[in-house]
From TrEMBL:
InterPro entries from the UniProt entry: Cell/Rod_1 (IPR042177), Cell/Rod_MreC_2 (IPR042175), MreC (IPR007221), MreC_beta-barrel_core (IPR055342)
GO cellular component term, pick one: plasma membrane
PANTHER family referenced in this protein's UniProt entry, alphabetically: CELL SHAPE-DETERMINING PROTEIN MREC
Annotated NCBIfam families: PRK13922.9-3
Organism: Hoylesella enoeca
Transmembrane in keyword set: yes
Protein name stated in the entry: Cell shape-determining protein MreC
Amino acid sequence: MRNLLEFLAKYNHWFVFVILEVIGLVLLFQYNNYQSSVWFSSANAVSGQCYKWSSEMASFFSLSKMNETLTQRNLYLEQQVRILSDTLAKTGRDSATISSNQLSELKQYRLIPAKVVSNTVNKIDNLMTIDKGSADGVHKDMGVACGNGIVGIVYIVSSHYSIVIPVLNSRSNIGCSIQGRGYFGVLHWTGGATDMAYVDDIPRHAHFKLYEKVVTSGYSSIFPPGVLVGTIKHVYNSTDGLSYRLKVQLATDFGNLRDVCVIDNTPMEERMQLLRTAQDSLTNR
């Protein structure tokens, strides 16, 4: 207390000065119209700039949520494009019924938004970590995609994190088909360029063109049909000459990947499990 009193006594003239200045400013702006208008104009300009900065900061911190929403929306729109393309390609059937049935199937897929917390692209067996795990409904062998296309398959799951085997891994095998053509094969990555992979086992009688799209085939419980994989850039003969090998430019930029979605494809998984059970039953007879 003594130190406080000594401090006030030592600098009392400054406190008196500040108090008198405040009183003078209040009297000036309260009883003079011109000074009052200048004050309010300046105050409004300052407060407006502060509100602008606050809004920009809020927008910046909301970008993460917006990216998650856009990623999910892009995946859904990709499915709608596939449905419309397939509907236009079919003849002699009720296209309205086809579109309605397939759109109802899309609603059965649950998308779990996640963020990539670690990722490598410079190895032959790259791995990726995302910030969602079993507590969020993620389990092994779920498909992972982003707003541009497929990413990979969930490999190991903990409570709050998951390890994903991306396309850029020599052990990755994903069933694909040529969009609108129906011919299917298996997607592999052999190292090297991170934007190129290969689709093997396309039959020799297949008809397609360069720059056509390659999408997931839907012939497994991992990915629904029609998720974009990439674009055909070159065609080779297989080593045995019995099929084609397609060089595909991947739609996903793995070097700049942040927001992804885990695809809960439970309806397809149930159908595949039923099919496996039927096949096992026939084999054991």
